[in-house]
Amino acid sequence: MRRIPPKLDKFMILACLFAVLGDPWGSAASAAGRSESCVECHKDDKFRVQNKKIYDYYQEWKGSAHDLAGLSCTACHNGDPAKAAKDEAHVGILPQSDPASPFYFKNIPKTCGGCHLPVLERFAQSRHFEQLKTTGRGPNCITCHGALNARVYSTTIIQRACSNCHNAKTKNHPEIIAQAQDILGRLNHANGYRKGLKFYYQSVKKPEAMGKVDSAYADTINFWHEFDFKKLGPRSQDLLAELKSLYLEAHKEESSQGDGR
Description:
This protein has helices spanning 6-21, 26-31, 37-42, 47-50, 52-61, 65-68, 73-77, 86-89, 108-113, 117-123, 127-135, 141-145, 155-162, 176-203, 210-224, 229-258. The protein is mainly α.
């Protein structure tokens, strides 16, 4: 077995650390210069006792992808972040049980799709979406991703979310659980190669080389949301093989440079 060169190996290690821990500088940078009454009020520790749901909701948002992207409460919930009084700040916010609310169960995909349009376009072609719109029993975005933190993609999510409908008791394609876990495992593996390649290409000052890699990965991730595993299974295998091949090519280039050739 050929040893991975120290430099390339370092990129894989750093990529994994960022994948697990996130950007340690991003949260502070996102919070700098941003102050809204929603955040100032909801971050108060008093909610830990007085309203645990509100306290947990803020804790999930803090440091999340949405926080780091600069999206606070009003971006999705409406309201007036310039008002300090509760009643004034909450004007325009509808309860989740209201069918007109952006967070009514059936409306979640449209709300999230405002920013995640490619995902919504794929999800709208799935049987899950059809069930959601016609019966209200299909899953929506938060079924797998949660409301705020949206950490992607743990295979434990499959068992927790999908098995509610797909199990031996319902006889509703229980085999899907194992299929989904296998596919998600390959996608996570492919993402590891992608992150390693990103660090490598940056180190050799060829960041443009990531264009093809990122596009192939994003296309497959978006396609996941159709939940057509008969097609997605082979597609995830192809993606993993492609990114592994690119990584090994980078490995050879690094070895050649190390040998002085």
